[in-house]
Design brief:
The protein is built from nine helices and no strands. With 193 residues, it is mostly helical. α7 runs antiparallel to α8 and α7 crosses α9. The longest helix is centred in the last third of the chain and has 57 residues. The two termini are 31 Å apart.
Length: 193
């Protein structure tokens, strides 16, 4: 079933819109606090559509993601009971918070780097860093390094891949979409138990 190819074509059109950078930066900011959709979904097609601005997009995504992370930290540190806890309970994220806290206890600041660079939900760790009163500046520096590495890698792959990358993505987008959904389901059930 081909549902991802039409979506990909729409995303490529949207990525050329004059307000696309604004939406990218807003997404990067809120993804670090509560938004479930990764920034890469907007960054990759934008970097592919406008390769001359790819580094600017990666820089902006990094900056706004870290600023969002700082707000997530503040929410976890200062407003956990009145704001964060009801949201965690409504979203059934209690297990994720417990896991994040145990990872912080075991790995410290390295957890922020891992969450910044990998597909692990960054928002859970920005808030948990605040809840656990992690030192703020090491948190910011580590998040900045991890997020920059991730977003500049995505932009770099799009710049290097160019038109060949776009052609390959167009050809295999449906297979990649279904593989991603399958991987997400497997990861969900693996982390749930």
């Amino acid at each position: 079933m081909k549902i991802f190819a039409p979506l990909y074509e729409k995303v490529m059109l949207w990525s050329k819109h004059k307000y696309a950078p604004f939406y990218l930066y807003v997404t990067a900011f809120i993804e670090s606090i509560f938004w479930p959709i990764p920034v890469d979904i907007m960054l990759a097609p934008m970097a592919l559509a406008k390769r001359e601005k790819a580094w600017q997009f990666a820089f902006g995504a990094t900056l706004f993601s870290v600023l969002g992370g700082a707000l997530g930290y503040y929410l976890g540190n200062a407003l956990y009971d009145p704001v964060v806890l009801p949201f965690i309970e409504a979203m059934h994220y209690q297990d994720k918070m417990i896991t994040a806290q145990s990872w912080f206890s075991e790995w410290g600041v390295l957890v922020i780097f891992i969450a910044s660079f990998t597909p692990i939900p960054f928002k859970v760790f920005t808030i948990t860093a605040g809840v656990m009163s992690m030192a703020f500046w090491p948190f910011i520096l580590t998040a900045l390094i991890g997020r920059a590495m991730r977003f500049f890698l995505v932009a770099g792959l799009m710049v290097l891949g160019g038109e060949k990358m776009e052609a390959k993505l167009s050809k295999y987008i449906d297979a990649l979409g279904w593989i991603t959904i399958l991987a997400a389901v497997i990861l969900y059930f693996t982390l749930k138990h």
